[in-house]
Amino acid sequence: MAVTSQNSTSKASKIQLFSISSPQMRAFHLTWMAFFVCFFAWFACAPLMPVIKGQLGLTIEQIANINIAAVAVTILVRLIIGPMCDRFGPRKTYTGLLLIGAIPVIGVGFSQSYESFLFFRLCIGAVGASFVITQYHTSVMFAPNVVGTANAATAGWGNAGGGVAQGLMPLLLAAMLMLGVGDYLGWRVALLVPGLLMLVMAALYWHFTQDCPQGNFDELRAAGITIDSGKKGGWASFRAASANYRVWMLFVTYGACFGVEIFIHNIAAIYYVDHFGLSLKSAGIAAASFGLLALFARALGGIISDKVALRGGLNRRATLLFVMMLGEGLGLLWFAHAGSVTLAVVAMLCFGLFTHMACGATYALVPFIDRKALGGVAGIIGAGGNVGAVLAGFLMKGLGNTQQTLSMLGVLVTVSALCAIAVRFTATDKSDEPALTVPANNIPA
Q: Which InterPro entries does the record cross-reference, listed alphabetically (predicted)?
């Protein structure tokens, strides 16, 4: 990522990776950090489920319900959070989500029954909407020539929080046990950590970010300055986005890539324990490797998308997404039929690479669908990821077998790749493509 100077009141045309001097780069770094903390909190329970299962006496069906609950409410919140960004600005929206989301994250450690655990797990799902705010904030801060890279990098590094949770939470539990804390309290104390991190992150986000390069939305509106991304604020943004067929095509593709990612986060550790007989620690490390791919793979998808767009236009972005979806589907089928733990891990890393890159390539397209209804577009497509995860959860509940579920998902992902091909841009859409290469100070915010 190149280093260059940039106008602090314009969208950034380069990513100054090692700088926080501009509002654009402060937003870049704090969005991925906030997203990382939210993802860490969202999936902190997953690697501890083998322990929690025994503590609370959970059945297979109850675990399936918990996994569904963990992603179900995010659908609704993601639909709401996008228009909220248009209306209130990403700074206020993100700070509020972090503060409110910390309540159930801390509360889950106090669960005494299946019902209370299910309730808190359902509420924790709301923090998954942090993804939409992250993508929104970088989209209004960075110019079209690097927005795909900025979106994919912040989302990928934030997504890594799920992988870190898979590996770190069992270690936190082990540390609690070594300090003399019993099994009953160990996992509960460990789950307090992500909630406290969310509170710290809320304070940092409020104090060090602003809504767009020119300032905060409320101040700009008070001064009579029109905000391009917020012209269709609130539900008008949602209605405009929902009328665009390309939004629903990407809704499906994102459900097939990010939905699968969430599903794997929720079941990977327990799958390795039950199917291959690994220990909790080994299963956590294996599952963590999938999530940690997000450190570079999602960014790679966005970078490649930006590169092919410069050479071949917007439609090349959609074609690239189609190829990545095919790779994900075929790799998932391989993972489902792996006969040993070694092959399973290798297959998981292969299909995981395509999965994360497909996520990055999807959101590299988002800023070009409807720039004046960005919040609605980001929210609907983001919700598609959770719809995919919920449907995968119901599929597993219906089949009653994780391996069969993975096989079926592989087929469905491969077929859904056709939706990427259906995303095409008109001559009018392409007329804006010269903006891909103009200097940042010539691009309206």
A: MFS (IPR011701), MFS_dom (IPR020846), MFS_trans_sf (IPR036259), NO3_transporter (IPR044772)
Sign, CA dihedral 71-75-76-82, equals positive
The set of residues, in sequence order, having a beta carbon less than 8 Å from that of 148 and lying 6+ positions away, is 302, 303, 305, 306, 309, 317, 360, 361, 363, 364, 365, 367
Tokens 């490797």 locate to: 289
Distance CA 399, CA 72 (A): 19
Cβ distance 181 to 48 under 8 Å?
Answer: no
Phi, psi of 12, deg, nearest 5:
-80, 130
Evaluate whether 112 touches 64 at the Cβ level (below 8 Å): no
CB 56 within 8 A of CB 199: no
- 326 in Cβ contact with 382 (< 8 Å): no
Q: Is 256 left (phi over 0), alpha (psi -120 to 50) or beta?
A: alpha
Q: Please write the tens of the pLDDT for every residue from 294-350.
A: 888 988 998 899 888 887 778 889 999 999 999 999 999 999 999 899 999 999 999
Per DSSP, what are the bridge partners of residue 215?
212
How big is the chain by its Cα radius of gyration, in Å? 21
Residue ranges in 142-244 assigned as alpha helix (H): 144-178, 183-190, 192-208, 217-222, 235-242
Q: Which residue has the tokens 């327990």?
A: 270
pLDDT in tens, 42-52: 989 888 888 89
Classify residue 433 by its DSSP letter: G
| CA atoms of 443 and 13, how far apart (whole Å) | 9
Q: Extract long-range pairs of 54-58: CB within 8 Å, 24+ residues apart.
A: 55/183, 55/184, 55/187, 56/111, 56/113, 56/114, 56/117, 57/114, 58/114
Provide the Cα torsion 393, 329, 408, 419; round to 10°: 80
The answer to whether 368 and 227 are in contact (CB under 8 A) is no
